[in-house]
Amino acid sequence: MHLPTAGASGGCMSRWNGHPSSRCARVRFAPPFLRKGEEKHAVPRFRRPFLRKMGKKSRYPAPMDWNILWYVIAGLIIVVGFIASILPNLPGIPLMFGGMLLAAWVGHFQKIPIWVIVFLGVLAAFSVVFDFLSGTYGAKRYGASKAAVWGALIGTIVGVFFGIPGIILGPFVGAVIGQLVSGSPIEDAAKVGFGTWIGLLIGTAIKLATAFMMLGTFALALLF
């Protein structure tokens, strides 16, 4: 075996031919095949910087793909926005648009181009404006007070806990109670509650239609 040894001059000499060996290193160690007493004359082989075994799995986990996390966040925002669009006076459509915009930004607007985002933004703006106008028109048409409007909003939120009947009747009951608190007689309070309820229902229906249009446009852009 070709084993480098240290010469008298401090350099490394081969035990086979006596020529300087290119495999010398500064740090000495005793290979296991040397006999006792030869450790001090042994010169280590040139240290390999790193031994890579082909096919060996790394003990460290693969780096996390942050795009997946952003897509999950965008999906949660879209779902929350869709649920909120069922309830009157809640910004469900803007939340949905924000989630879709985030998903398009994470994908560098490749799957979802900018013109799709502009179209979704126009739909969201139309829904917000129409929802506001329908609620305001229904309230003003029958002379609703601020207490009646706030009562309709509170009745909507409370009605969520009672399922679909609560969602439908909650705004009406809340508007009637609010109008009664403001000092109106029961007949006027019933008319105000009915008008406010009709306006909120129309606005909610428009929001739901817009939400389905936005989801369909978003899904088609992802698929095609």
Describe this protein's structure.
There is one protein chain. This protein has six helices and two strands. The protein has two domains: 1-47, no CATH class; 66-213, no CATH class. It starts with a strand and ends with a helix. It has 224 residues and is mainly α.
Task: Tell me, rounded to a whole number, the average pLDDT.
Answer: 76
Radius of gyration: 38 Å
User: Element order, helices and strands?
Assistant: EEHHHHHH
Q: Which overall shape is indicated by the principal axes computed on the Cα atoms? A: elongated
Main beta-sheet annotation: 2 strands, antiparallel
Strand arrangement within the widest β-sheet reads 1-2
Number of helical segments with 4 or more residues: 6
Number of domains: 2
Report the strand count. 2
Beta content comes to under 5%
Share in helix: 55-70%
> What is the CA-CA span between the terminal residues?
67 Å
Secondary-structure class: mainly alpha
Identify low-pLDDT runs: 1-11, 13-30, 42-55
Question: Could you provide a short overview of the structure?
Answer:
The chain is mostly helical and 224 residues long. The chain has helices at 66-85, 92-106, 114-141, 146-159, 163-181, 186-223; strands at residues 4-6, 12-14.
Task: List its salient traits.
224 residues; elongated; 6 helices; mainly alpha
Task: Lay out the secondary structure.
Blueprint: E1 4-6, E2 12-14, H1 66-85, H2 92-106, H3 114-141, H4 146-159, H5 163-181, H6 186-223
Antiparallel strand pairs: 1-2
Helix pairs in contact: 1-2, 2-3, 2-6, 3-6, 4-5, 5-6
